[in-house]
Amino acid sequence: MKNILIPTDFSELATNAVDIGAQLARTTNSTLHILHVAPKKDKAEESQKKMDELLNSDMLKGINVKSVFLQEKLEGAIVKTARDIDVDIIVMGARGEKLSSRIVGSNTERVVRLAQRPVLVIKNKIEHFKIENIVFASSFYTEIRPVFPKIQEFAEFNDAKLHLLKVITPKNFETTTYTRKLMTDFADRNDLKNYTINIYNEESKDAGINKFAQEVNADLIAMTTHGRKGLSQVLLGSLTETVASESQIPVLSVKLPEKKSNNRILFPE
């Protein structure tokens, strides 16, 4: 990990994300890029003053920090900056079931959906961000193969136990024998060492993921997202976004490779 991006609106929630990013930067010897995106009507002097105060705060002492100050339309600015800087991870704040204000607001959901880089969503202030138990909730189908190494690398760097989790619901039933073999083959294919296999029955996937994470005292939930847009997003929604909204522990989201659009989504064969 070399570059970490943290968007901020200078709120308490965003500052919590900066604190987590700073802890990650110290551990990985990474450069911290702090981004503020302001509408053109905002006073540049006021925003710059807040940025300077943040850069001079104790939490950032001893860290290589670069500020990115933009006055432009917010939409797409975070994703574009992440691409331009070639960051390894984006850290963003969120609150409850609603995500706060401009930067840590519904924009967090959009970044989770669209960013090609992993996104770490933070809800609360964490004094010591130590990752020992990670729940990786997934279908464990072949589509996750290209991006799982990012999650595996994060787990191995932190020397964390990876709890592989598949939630079975009444609407998406699979036999235990089939699911266990699917997950065992996945673990063997990726040469996992420090892990557990868990099959959890619940009425909904998001409820199962959050309940299991609480049961194992997880420090982080890791998931992949399809990053659906337009009609697909309206109809199918995003499990990752739902979990990120509901979970009180950090959620790491990694976007799956985009597939060709299916114009027959309303009438699948």
UniProtKB/TrEMBL annotation:
| Gene3D superfamilies per the UniProt record, alphabetical | HUPs
Which Pfam families does the entry link to? Usp
Protein origin, superkingdom: Bacteria
Where the record annotates domain UspA, the positions are 1-123, 150-255
Report the sequence similarity comment from the record. Belongs to the universal stress protein A family.
Instruction: Show the PANTHER family listed in the entry.
Output: STRESS RESPONSE PROTEIN NHAX, UNIVERSAL STRESS PROTEIN UP12
Please identify the protein, giving its name as recorded: Universal stress protein
Species annotation: Salibacter halophilus
